[in-house]
Amino acid sequence: MKGRGVDISVTRDTFRLAQVFTISRGSRSTAEVLTVRINADGVTGWGECVPYARYDETLDSVSAQIEGLPEQFDRAALRDLLPAGAARNAVDCALWDLEAKRAGKRVWELAGLPAPGPELTAYTLSLDTPDAMQAQAAANAHRPLLKIKLGTPDDMPRLKAVRAGAPEARIIVDANEGWSAETYADLAPHLQRLGVALVEQPLPAGEDEALRAMARPVPVCADESCHDRASLPRLAGKYDVVNIKLDKTGGLTEALALKAAALAEGYGIMVGCMVGSSLAMAPAVLVAQGAMVTDLDGPLLLAEDRAQPLQYDDAGVHPPAAGLWG
Fold this sequence. Notes:
This protein is α/β, with parallel strands linked by helices. It is built from ten helices and 14 strands. The longest helix has 18 residues, at 86-103. Mean pLDDT is 94; it is low at 1-5.
């Protein structure tokens, strides 16, 4: 797309995973992402998104959305040009990167945010047999926060196995909409007994009304039920925490606005991700500052990454260097 010195390109990139990654919806061995580059007057900003089939997104459909943008627009106009989702995320983040490079500043300066620091991140254990998950947990027991993918009718043996493998770790559970109200009601007291700190999206987004009448001994986080600020009115009385993912909000601009609105309404903040590269995580690190839970482990699951990846160490995931993004 060209016009008045502006050029937008979309490429498909594949990153091999370190091992097969499984959730209740299926397995994968690669991360398939779209990389958007916006060039203006010889300066290029870039961003990444991960189309998600759960939201009826494909690599082709998201590419078409981006390629269908008009020749001239800015971040303020983007909200009306694209819906919240993967396409708007990659473009919004590329525009932030472009603006920062042209101004000779970092994105957090442009956004009026304090300089960011590292945030401890969860490390996700793939859904597997109890024995295999116990082995995964034991191998990662040194990590302070483990996230378990569950969401089947037979999850108690898996949860017990993970706790046995990592007795000291803080644990959060992601059901990926996989439980019924009855299953969750049976599991909830056991989640508390086994020291689970948070449970993500226990019920399908369209069937979560049952949460209003249920005790929540463990804080419940809205993932598939929360996309952007328009989602908040439907969450009251059902959830305690919201999971902010840039591929759901449609970019950093809305993610920061959602965080502010959710905090104002008393929700805890979790910042999550799809399985993508360091380029996808970089803007989310800014949103994760001070969050109740940070879950930006995508690059830790990869066998390969961007040329200048994010830094991960005992302090957590560090803000991006300017050579990566922002």
